Amino acid sequence: MCLRKYIILKKVERKPHSNKCCLMKFKKTYKFKNLFYIAVLLVLYRCDTSSSHSLFTSLNPSSIGIEFQNDIQETMHNNILRNEYTYNGGGVAAGDLNNDGLADVYFSGNMVSNKLYINKGNWKFEDVTKFSGTGGRKNWATGVVMVDINGDGWLDIYVCYSGNSPGEGYNLPVVRNLPGRANQLFINKGCEPGGVPTFTESAKKYGVDAIGTFSTQSYFFDYDKDGDLDMFLLNHANTFYAPFINTKRLRNLRHPYYGNKLFRNDNIKFVEVSKEAGIHGGGLNFGLSASISDINMDNWPDLYVTNDYDEQDYCYINNKDGTFREVSKDILGHMSKSSMGSDIADINNDGYADIFVLDMLPEDNHRQKLLRGQDSYDRYQLAVDSGFHNQYLRNILQLNRGLAADSLPRYSEIGQFAGISNTDWSWSVLLEDLDNDGLRDIFITTGYLRDITNMDHMTHTTEVYKKAAARKEKVNFLKLIEELPTTRLKNYVFQNANGIKFISKTDDWGFNQETISNGAAYADFDNDGDYDLITNNLNQHCTVLKNNQDEKLQNNFIKIKLIGSENNTQGIGAKIWIETEDKSIFHEAYTARGYLSSSEPVITLGLGNSELIKSLKVLWPDGLQTVLSNLTPNQLIKLVYSGSQGKLDSSSVEPNKTLLDDVTSTSGITFKHTTSNFVDFKKGGLWYYQLSKLGGFLATGDVNSDGNDDIFFGGAAGQSAELYHGNNDGTFSLSKNQPWSLDSSMEDMESLFFDADNDGDLDLYVVSGGVSFEINSAQYQDRLYLNDGTGEFINISNVLPSESTSGSCAVAADYDMDGDLDVFVGGRHQAMGYPISPKSFILRNESKGNNIKFVNATEEIGTSIEHIGMVTDAQWTDYNGDNWPDLIVVGEWMGIKVFQNVNGKLIEQKMASLEKSEGWWTSISQLDIDADGDMDYLVGNAGLNSQIKASVAEPIELYTFDYNNDGNLDPILCYYIQGKSYPMHSRNELLNHIIQLRKKFPNFFSYSDATIIDIIDPEMREKSFKLSANIMESCWIENVEGELILKKLPDLVQFSYVNSFINFDFDGDGTQDVIAAGNFYPLKPQIGMNDASMGTFLKFANNKLTVTDGIVSPLWLYGDIRDMALLSFKSGKKLVVVSKNNEAASIYAINPEFGKESKIR
Q1: Residue 652 near residue 51 (C-beta atoms within 8 A)
Q2: Rounded to an integer, what distance in angstroms lies between the CA atom of residue 702 and that of residue 714?
Q3: Which end of the chain has less neighbouring CB within 10 Å, N or C?
Q4: Is residue 164 a contact partner of residue 82, using CB atoms and an 8 Å limit?
Q5: 79-83, 605-609, 937-941: which has the minimum mean pLDDT?
């Protein structure tokens, strides 16, 4: 039992370490009867700092005494062609090893000695490697961590080793139990404060030598919450297995040297428990980093592990019984392909930890086209089908959206939206507040010694091997390697703008040096209240970056030193919450972060301009907590575990309350939209998405007049649609009458319940679409099903004009005011003619009694409608208040088109706000958003979470012509990268389709800077059909006395495609609310599936639509959503139905308690 301890705030004197200081004095000293205390230390301000123009200053290594250089020299034994991790570099650790209050530094070296530098103060360091006994072995040290492993109050050093021994290498057998590949543990024997500690190597004694393993990094945490620190050891393979042969066995068979390992601490003796704990350890494992966090917020540490190459990342949730379960596919829509460094932290101050994982997609077009890129569709799909999940070659930022009903979080991947997806060959990422404004910024190390994925060199290497094999000669590895270019890059730094958007500050903040940087750590080396940075560089001196925030910005901060329990003296795993008048900051105390490295255990948190810390709470790993109130900033606080104040009230965080509760399992709805195996990319080689995967729509209405809404779900090609009847209790029953089963070969697009024959019941119009049928196929003919008044339907499609357009939508209105409903039908695309505008048409209803007839009246009404573009949606509406139904049409590569109805003629209107409104519009819905008595509009678009972005100044462009003379159109999509427009397609993709270009671009270098002007000759370019898009944001259109003004929707709506809107007073406050939902999966792997939307709840306030509790209280409307509708029942009950492409439909009840806790953001 832990008794409540009293707190002493005590002034502490200490020597200034030869730097001038400004001392802050405390006004009060609180003394109580107990000897336990929390000491509030003075913060040292450097008053003699030299001026700098940037936030960071790169210090001369020799002038400060840190001259470490991780030099490697390739030999016939050690080289990149025998060991693909030759250039992965070394790590760096920061921490106070001699307990003098200053952070010291330890570097790991690959082919050089490890080095320890003691911080002497005033930016002077001393190399004490030899005296301290920490030099280690010169055989490929990798990761390094400072940790007090034995609980004596002195930081120890754990060093990992990897690398090949003579006789090992690419596809060669592993030398078992190789002593040179045993990890090392240097136990700190202590010294006088400020002195030089000495160390004893004790890895074997403690059971953590892991002899023979190819180790990347170690991570210490108390996974079983027994009070001491356990160890997760991240390892990697040094050979390649065929990942798609015997995949299940290969992944599940534990490899003794490649597989990751978990060690339980049993009284300072570590025992491996990997298998029984559920940690994967297969031979495909190429672990490059791990991050520890309480992912599901149950106060038990969980684990995220990255994997390079084919194996996926793993997310392990702690089961609280010594075991873990892997949940990555449950909580992540996709992940990085070549996952490298990672970090987990709360980037938007909502109290939920977010995940950032690095990859290697270059920022510039030249390197994107020159280096190996995303897998082809076939290989990507094979990996997915083999269980490796969806993986994309770019940095991945997983934004935590809170806990779902299963008590697991869900994440929206928004790296491209945030502007941080492309940082080239990246290694370490640190999520820390570098400018002390209260938001975490991002620091990323980059560079690669030789461009091993240079496509020209890979082609050349293959030829060399072939020739050598034919001649039975040995390959001169070193000569091949020397031909490779070196890639030194600037490290990246991004300033956090608002929690979900970041601004590149690489040049502005002084990160101008081009290096090959691998491991990185942060520490406040000069104790001035901000984080400095240090990197371990390959074949260059390390980089030490002094943070000038204290002079340049002078933002406030708080420093926290945790003094933990007996066997966890650094308080590893503790959680910290800070509340100021305008900020909430959450931090988890783990030091091993980024890549191969560990950062200072003393925590520095920026506060911006906040002058008072209202509360500071620490939750220790065992559940005890310490709470302080009303603290002044700019001080160092020591928090002692023995002064904790009792158990946390709750053992975990409850799942987030949400507006919609999923009731599908009890609804009676079992429909699942199921697409065929048709692959559009085999037919349209340059298409950037699959046109055959657009379906998954629904229609709702009371077809049997029982007062309950019914649902029609459209089917995919080869699948029958289904009709469900609503019951009085809000459940559904499958209709016995399904006449559309005879038309199951067709691809159903949007459908429409309307009264075609004016007999008072709802008939059904179904639009036929898709792309898998031949040109002019009867499969594109739309259908009409007549209702007999009881909900029984018969097919009367012969009353429709014959047509073969692959359509999208149908909307009904009495445009000619003759008393019956006419139909506008939008054409989606021409079969095998993408992106040529298909036919859209208006069907005039000329039915007389039982003689039902529709005629194509398009030419009479408005000829500009017939080839308006690739229509996705339309809305009949009276936008100008003249009581005649006007028409607004949206589409892909289309501007928003407004047609005024003038006595039954549709006349296109030009509106200033809608000029240059060309986008990839997906949907339109009408609603009097601002309650001013006229109709406003919601329009869905592709969003901003993509490589492909557009503006009027930098539009997306699509050039189309039969460039290869095969009788089919070849669309070449171009978009801007760093101010210049380039084709999206890789050289292989473009030249495999347009073989005539092979002479023009004989290698990848010749193509790497090519624009459309370079690719297509002027004469052919002149003949090309050109489309452009200027806006990708979803918007709302304000109707101001008939003038339509386009306005962008909030950021959270822009995370993905928006395909559907519904409106209703969901929260019961008397005003109409809006739900937006979407996503879009069938994009090329190079673009990647858009899956970040989980539905967004919008309210109108202050003349704009705002997001309510959007980030951590989403609607859980995920999946490839195509359509939504609000359902009404005789009882007054309301439900929401959602339909998806290639997924099951779902039903949601409206939570009446949601509105009581909502907040406008």
Answers
A1: no
A2: 17
A3: N
A4: yes
A5: 79-83
- Say if CB 956 and CB 1065 are below 8 A apart: no
Q: Is the dihedral of CA 487, 489, 491, 497 positive or negative?
A: negative
**Helix (H/G/I), strand (E/B), else coil: 566:** coil
Estimate the share of the chain in helix, then strand, then coil, as percent rounded to the nearest 5.
10, 35, 50
pLDDT reported for residue 77? 82
Strands 314-318 and 302-307: antiparallel
DSSP string, 3-50: ------B-------TTS---PPPPS--B--SSS----EEPPPP-SSPP
What is the pLDDT, as a whole number, of residue 685?
86
Identify any residues that bridge with 638 across adjacent strands, giving them in sequence order. Answer: 561
State the residue for tokens 């543990």.
185
Average pLDDT score, the chain: 92
Cβ neighbours for 388, distance < 8 A, ≥ 6 positions apart: 243, 310, 311, 312
Contact residues for 984 (Cβ-Cβ < 8 A; gap 6+): 688, 948, 972, 973, 974, 975, 1086, 1087
CA-wise closest residue to 354 among 288, 308, 420, 309:
420
Cα 284 from Cα 276, distance rounded (Å): 20
Specify the DSSP class assigned to residue 549: H
- Please report the pLDDT score of residue 49 as a whole number: 33
Token pair listed for 283: 């031979």
The residues, any chain, with a CB within 8 Å of residue 866's CB and separated by 6 or more, are: 839, 840, 841, 858, 859
pLDDT at residue 1021 tops 60: yes
In the sheet that holds 354-357, the strands lie side by side as 342-345, 354-357, 396-403, 409-413
- Dig out the tokens for 62 from the structure: 């020799």
Distance from C-alpha of 1046 to C-alpha of 306, rounded to nearest angstrom = 42
Specify the DSSP element, H or E, that contains 522: strand 517-523
Is residue 835 reached through a cis peptide bond, with omega within 30 degrees of 0 on the bond before it?
Answer: yes
Q: Are 594 and 586 a contacting pair, CB within 8 Å?
A: no
Instruction: Tell me if 953 sits within 8 A of 966, measured CB to CB.
Output: no
Nearest to 7, CA basis, from 599, 641, 514, 583: 641
- The full DSSP string for 272-332 is E-HHHHT----TT-BEEEEEEE-TTSSSS-EEEEEE-TTSPPEEEEE-SSS-EEE-HHHH-
Cα(36)–Cα(465) distance, integer angstroms: 70
Token pair belonging to 994: 């347009």
Cα–Cα distance, 217 to 141 (Å, whole number) = 10
d(CA 350, CA 607) in angstroms, rounded, equals: 15
Nearest to 93 by CA among 542, 607, 438: 542
Count how many Cα atoms sit within 13 Å of the Cα of residue 891 in the half-sphere of its side chain. 29
Q: pLDDT tens for residues 431-459?
A: 999 999 999 999 999 999 999 999 999 99
As given in the structure block, the two tokens for residue 1101 are 């306030």
**Using CA of residue 110, residue 111, residue 117, residue 123, what is the dihedral sign?**
negative
Q: Which residues contact 665 (CB under 8 A, 6 or more apart)?
A: none
What amino acid occupies position 1113? S
pTM, to two decimals: 0.94
